[in-house]
Amino acid sequence: MSPSISTRTLDHIVHMTSPGSVEETAEQFRKLGFNVLPGGRHADGLTENALIVLQDGVYLELISFVLPFSSYPRDSPERQKRAGHRWAKMPNGWIDYAFLGNGSKEEGSRISDIINNRARADGSHDLYSSEHEGGRERPDGKVLKWLISSSLQKKHGILPFFCGDVTDRTLRVPVEPPSNLEHPCSAVGIAHVHVTCSSSDVDTLVKEFTYVIGDAPKKSNASRFEWELDTSTPSRPSHLIVDAADIGSSGLSISELGIYVERVPDEDSTTTPFGRIFWVKA
Q1: How far apart are CA 246 and CA 47, in angstroms?
Q2: In whole angstroms, what is the distance from residue 51 CA to residue 38 CA?
């Protein structure tokens, strides 16, 4: 395992809404003061997105399925593919998040190998699936390719998935021109991703997050644990916070997203129709 391969770089956070609603959701985020960019349709034809790119290189992915499940003919391959999608049964809101992969399929240097080897060395089981191909076509016709490695957990949105670019990342994350990164709400980066889990799951999750990130949490108490994350263009610290709460056994995935802003509004938090944002002074 090469020590130069990082497994702690925050790449993007996923916000899901109802099928066919990407444009409506984009307008809702514009009203919150974000500059929303067109994304495109993914290679599987099932989902489409729009993007909010921040100065730290992290982006918010506003995503929806193109069509509702009921639109696909019964017993058709398309219906089966739609039913088997990792987000098919997820509620609307902040549903998932990605760390940056390295785009490698070479055995031993794959992100999945690195994390699984950490877990095995501690006597635990594999946490991540082998990399598989993903991609989408931009509205300008450019085809993007990447490799995805997903957690083997039954519930998605707790441990991050990894997205490693095969084509240049700047094609997937359009940081140019600089105006793409300018937002009326003055957003500049991600302060924290806040994951809430059941108290019965927290010990296991903290161990698994430690395998993923490669370090024990920097701050912790009986029910709250915090890791510092990297970003592709670091300027301010970004954190992953895991909180245990009495919420039953199902867990809650991402309960809140902290966003750095240069001007904090009178209300220090807001909600999209389906998710909470906490404004943090940059």
Answers
A1: 33
A2: 6
Beta-bridge partner residues of 238 = 229
Helix, strand or coil, per DSSP, at residue 183: coil
CB contact at 8 A, 113 and 119: no
Containing H/E element for 210?
Answer: helix 202-213
For 200, the token pair is 């019965």
Pairing of strands 132-137, 37-42: antiparallel
Q: How far apart are the first and last CA of the chain?
A: 36
Domains recognised in the chain with CATH numbers? 10-172 (3.10.180.10), 180-281 (2.60.40.4320)
Query: What distances in angstroms separate CA 62 from CA 65, 113, 273, 275, one per listed residue?
Result: 11, 30, 12, 12
- Token pair, residue 64, equals 């929806």
- Residue 152 to residue 127: CA distance in whole angstroms: 5
pLDDT at 1: 40
- Is the N-terminal amide bond of 177 cis, ω within 30° of 0? yes
Q: What is the per-residue pLDDT across 12-52, written as a single tens digit (0 to 9) for each?
A: 999 999 999 999 999 999 999 999 999 999 988 999 999 99
176 in helix, strand or coil?
coil
The C-alpha atoms of residue 272 and residue 276 are separated, in whole angstroms, by 6
Using CA atoms, how far apart are residues 279 and 267, in angstroms rounded to an integer? 8
Q: CA-to-CA distance for 202 and 167, rounded, in angstroms?
A: 37
SS3 31: helix
Mean pLDDT, range 108-117, rounded to an integer: 95
